[in-house]
Design brief:
The chain has 820 residues and is an alpha+beta fold. It has 5 domains: 130 residues, Agglutinin, subunit A, CATH 2.90.10.10; 134 residues, Agglutinin, subunit A (Orthogonal Prism), CATH 2.90.10; 133 residues, no CATH class; 123 residues, 2-Layer Sandwich (Phosphorylase Kinase, domain 1); 205 residues, Transferase(Phosphotransferase) domain 1 (Transferase(Phosphotransferase), domain 1), CATH 1.10.510.10. It is built from 16 helices and 47 strands. The longest helix is centred in the middle third of the chain and has 35 residues. It is globular, with a radius of gyration of 32 Å. The N and C termini lie far apart (74 Å). It binds 2-acetamido-2-deoxy-beta-D-glucopyranose (8 copies). The site of one 2-acetamido-2-deoxy-beta-D-glucopyranose (NAG) has 7 residues, from loops. Keywords: ATP-binding, Disulfide bond, Glycoprotein, Kinase, Membrane, Nucleotide-binding, Serine/threonine-protein kinase, Signal, Transferase, Transmembrane, Transmembrane helix. Its EC number is 2.7.11.1.
Length: 820
């Protein structure tokens, strides 16, 4: 009786006072949620109620974070059946179904309990899970229904993605159609139940991107997430369930994974930054061209940094021409299956494993047995371990074509690919070669020992030992040990403090736009460059984020490699490989150092920068515009290979976009394209412009800004243009390499430089054309009038009147606000 009247009373209270209602997390059969009420989880982390997404006026029931200011919906009940007025009511009906009633009390959405119980209640948990349970089952996870089993586009910590094999339930994420419309869109992410299960993302019914199968510690196609500061994850696979799940390392953090089609990235992991009170992208796919499903076709291997990115596996050759890679590769020599000795396996390292649709896997078969089984089955094309930890165990065999393979610089896996035995001949040949080499080495070493012995007895043996140690170490590195390959990018502050002797001024290399750069040495002797963002620099925040997010994903031999980052308290630090030769400007603008760079070195540098830019513009999936190409951002390693650095200003573009407009013009005077400096319009062609300036600077040894000529007051471009028109290009060449034998190459490079700095972006060549022109001897088009080639006075009048005085320092990257 008391319970009854209490229920009545609370129902009355609920009805009358719900706008001011004390937050409740539970409703029972007699209660309901309407436009004027919500459910709030016990500790206030999540809220359930009615909402309208974006600019839509339709009403939906959803769950969102309660304790952050940015409304972030993580689940939607009636995603396909919106309610068009405020009549919606969510309740438990008398048979224990959760029903959402719309106009005229029609059922627009419902959820059925697995069994009927006397007194079911609907509760919103602090995990973001909406559960229907027996009132008495307070602490059990014996839910009659739960929203975690019916995800929309968001995966929360503790939520399972995948299969319950006992009930046949599949949980997969499906994107919203648009930010205004939560109904199911084109993209979906789930786990496929092949013999060797894998994680896949689809566009409609086509595969779009594979994370690949689980290899015991991570997905084969996502080595970079193996250890990260934010979350732990695993794939559970047993006879009852196959699912992916993640947990936060720190429960107070917030992170979610979303499948979103309106974004250049399809699957994004966000992390909540409580400092800036905003969501930040922590990781996302696809990362680059090579993530495109099956890009290189059968037996093709996608390698970022190679040109073309598609290469055939050992023992295979391109099937079609070199332009259309989708046809993939075919065997150099087919093998005869009946003859056991006609085929063998080549071990290919560092891969994302191929599509597992036609596979057979068994965790208790070892690699040797696996090989034997594969050999004895005609359709088996390859095999490998299913579990790479602890030295490797388990067996997976592939049948039919091997599709969607890519290579990773770090953290890939080995795959044993079946090829004709004579192709392995290369191997036995190699063995002979190895024997020969070893004998030669022994011979030479013996000779050396004898000679050395003559001079100094003891040191010779020591040297040999060292030698062997080095060889052993190198071999070890190549022999798998993938587990150690990719330590988290996250560095501990203590480690950095130690490496730089507490940011000692002796170790300071220079001062960048956002703070000092130090040299450091890690415990293992590796030299690093440490970029420490000044604490006061408010802008540094964005640049730091941008740089970490972008560059961690980029891999190319002409881009500087990020080794790690550190974000601790107020410290924002980036760690790069150390470049002993500093940057290009130290060489080309300095009279004495200039002598060190002959034309062939300069040409090597020019081509390297061009390839690096091409990669940014085209070969990485998201088009990237660097926006700050200049001599001081081109670093040089010990072999004088150029590496593009400083991605703080870079912009990414998804899909078909290729230009943007910004109110905040960033870049460096003297390198900025006119349309960008004046109108804030940036595109790949504005990078091409900067590249052209750089090219002219490398050849002339003069800075575009600060260029001074006795005869006339023009900048470097204007000067070059005048010399071009007067047929006196020779005068532009820096005297220190004027006597090169390859003058035609130099003149051709100036010509290309002039094509790059043409006034109208549409006249400038793309980077891919630049690379082609640099590498061939074809006739080049005539350049038109360059941009910013006018007299200095005119340039000033031409450009923005709001250009601020303080930003005119030559070498410092400037930021202009509102150029118009
Ligand atoms: C919600 O509250 C408003 C104002 O108090 C009232 O006019 C409206 O009828 C209420 N709606 C429902 C569905 O109770
Ligand atoms: C709302 O939906 C109902 C049922 O679908 C329909 O009859 C009604 O015309 C709609 N009202 C408006 C304003 O669109
Ligand atoms: C409760 O809702 C379900 C689903 O709409 C329906 O099948 C069932 O008949 C309803 N029960 C009652 C008592 O209305
Ligand atoms: C979790 O994060 C909070 C807030 O950032 C921090 O105060 C707390 O120390 C962290 N806890 C652990 C165990 O790291
Ligand atoms: C998807 O991406 C778009 C564009 O970034 C954003 O406006 C929208 O809120 C995202 N949707 C979800 C559900 O995160
Ligand atoms: C896996 O292999 C073991 C040993 O060969 C065998 O006992 C077991 O039945 C196999 N399991 C499956 C699922 O095939
Ligand atoms: C080879 O393996 C496939 C897939 O498991 C199987 O269907 C086929 O029967 C096997 N063939 C032989 C000859 O064992
Ligand atoms: C993989 O192998 C390691 C070490 O042998 C073992 O501890 C782990 O449980 C295995 N993982 C799976 C998923 O079988």
């Amino acid at each position: 009786m008391r319970i009854f009247s209490f229920t009545i009373l609370s129902a009355i209270l609920f009805t009358f006072f719900s706008p001011l209602s004390i937050a409740i997390d539970t409703i029972s059969v007699t209660q309901s949620i309407n436009e004027n009420s919500t459910l709030v989880s016990e500790y206030g982390r999540f809220e359930l109620g009615f909402f309208s997404p974006g600019s839509s006026t339709y009403r939906y029931v959803g769950i969102w974070y309660k304790d952050i200011p940015v409304k972030t919906v993580v689940w939607v009940a009636n995603r396909q059946n919106p309610i068009n007025d405020s009549s919606g009511t969510l309740m438990i009906n008398r048979t224990g179904h959760v029903v959402l009633l719309g106009q005229k009390s029609t059922v627009v959405w419902s959820a059925s309990p697995t069994e009927s119980v006397q007194a079911p209640i609907l509760q919103l948990l602090d995990t973001g899970n909406l559960v229907l349970r027996n009132e008495k089952d307070e602490n059990s996870e014996n839910y009659l229904w739960q929203s975690f089993d019916y995800p929309t586009d968001t995966l929360l910590p503790g939520m399972k993605l995948g299969w319950d094999l006992r009930t046949g339930l599949e949980r997969r994420l499906v994107s919203w159609k648009s930010p205004d419309d939560p109904s199911p869109g084109d993209f979906a992410w789930g786990i496929t139940l092949h013999s060797y299960p894998e994680s896949e993302t689809w566009k409609g019914s086509n595969k779009y991107f594979r994370d690949g199968p689980w290899n015991g510690i991570r997905f084969s196609g996502a080595p970079e997430l193996q250890s990260n500061p934010l979350f732990n994850f695993k794939l559970v696979s047993n006879k009852n369930e196959v699912y992916y799940i993640f947990y936060l390392k720190n429960e107070t953090a917030k992170s979610r994974m979303v499948v979103n089609q309106t974004n250049g990235y399809i699957r994004i992991r966000y992390a909540w930054n409580s400092g800036t009170q905003s969501w930040e992208v922590f990781a996302s796919v696809p990362r680059d061209t090579c993530d495109t499903y099956g890009l290189c076709g059968a037996y093709g291997n996608c390698i970022i940094g190679e040109s073309p990115v598609c290469q055939c596996l050992t023992g295979f050759k391109p099937k079609g021409n070199f332009i259309d890679w989708s046809q993939g590769c075919v065997r150099n020599k087919p093998f005869d299956c009946q003859d056991k000795h006609s085929s063998g396996f080549v071990k290919i390292r560092g891969l994302k494993l191929p599509d597992t649709t036609y596979t057979w896997a068994n965790a208790s078969v070892n690699l040797k047995e696996c090989k034997a089984r594969c050999l004895s089955n005609c359709s088996c094309t390859g095999y490998t371990n299913t579990n790479i930890s602890g030295g490797g165990s388990g067996c997976a065999m592939w049948f039919g074509d091997l599709i969607d393979i890519r290579e990773f610089q770090d953290g890939g896996q080995d795959l044993y690919v079946r090829i004709h035995a004579s192709e392995l001949g290369a191997n036995s040949e190699r063995k002979v070669k190895i024997v020969v080499v070893v004998l030669a080495v022994i011979f030479v070493v013996c000779g050396m020992i004898l000679v050395a012995h003559y001079i100094r007895k003891i040191r010779a043996t020591r040297g040999l030992e060292d030698n062997i140690e080095t060889i052993a170490r190198t071999t070890n590195q190549n022999n798998g040990a993938q587990t150690n390959n990719l330590e988290a990018l996250f560095f501990d502050l203590d480690k950095i403090v130690e490496a730089t002797s507490n940011f000692s001024s002796n170790n300071k290399l220079g001062e960048g736009g956002f703070g000092p750069v130090y040299k450091g040495t890690l415990e293992d002797g590796q030299e690093i460059a440490v970029k420490r963002f000044s604490k006061s620099s408010g802008q540094g925040q964005n640049e730091f984020k941008n740089e970490v997010i972008l560059i961690a994903k980029l891999q190319h031999r002409n881009l500087v490699k990020l080794l790690g980052y550190c974000l601790q308290g107020e410290e924002k630090i980036l760690i790069y490989e150390y470049m002993p030769n500093k940057s290009l400007d130290f060489f080309i603008f300095d009279q004495t150092k200039s002598e060190l760079l002959d034309w062939s070195k300069r040409y090597h540098i020019i081509c390297g920068i061009a390839r690096g830019l091409l990669y940014l513009h085209q070969d990485s999936r998201l088009r990237i515009i660097h926006r700050d190409i200049k001599a001081s951002n081109i670093l040089l390693d010990n072999e004088m290979n150029p590496k593009i650095s400083d991605f703080g200003m870079a912009k990414t573009f998804g899909g078909d976009e290729s230009e943007g407009n910004t109110k905040r013009v960033v870049g460096t005077y003297g390198y900025m394209a006119p349309e960008y400096a004046i109108d804030g319009l940036f595109s790949m062609k504005s990078d091409v412009f900067s590249f052209g300036i750089l090219l002219l600077e490398i050849i002339s040894g003069k800075k575009n800004r600060g260029f001074y000529h006795l005869d006339h007051s023009q900048n470097l471009i204007g000067h070059a243009w005048r010399l071009w028109k007067e047929g006196r290009l020779m005068e532009l060449i820096n005297p220190c390499f004027k006597d090169t034998s390859n003058l035609s190459e130099v003149l051709r490079s100036i010509h290309i430089g002039l094509l790059c700095v043409q006034e109208h972006p549409e006249d400038r060549p793309s980077m891919s054309y630049v690379v082609v022109m640099l590498g061939s001897e074809s006739t080049l088009p005539q350049p038109k009038q360059p941009g910013f080639s006018l007299d200095k006075t005119n340039v000033a009048a031409n450009s923005s009147p709001k250009k601020s005085e303080s930003s005119s320092t030559n070498e410092i990257t400037v930021t202009l606000l509102e150029p118009r």
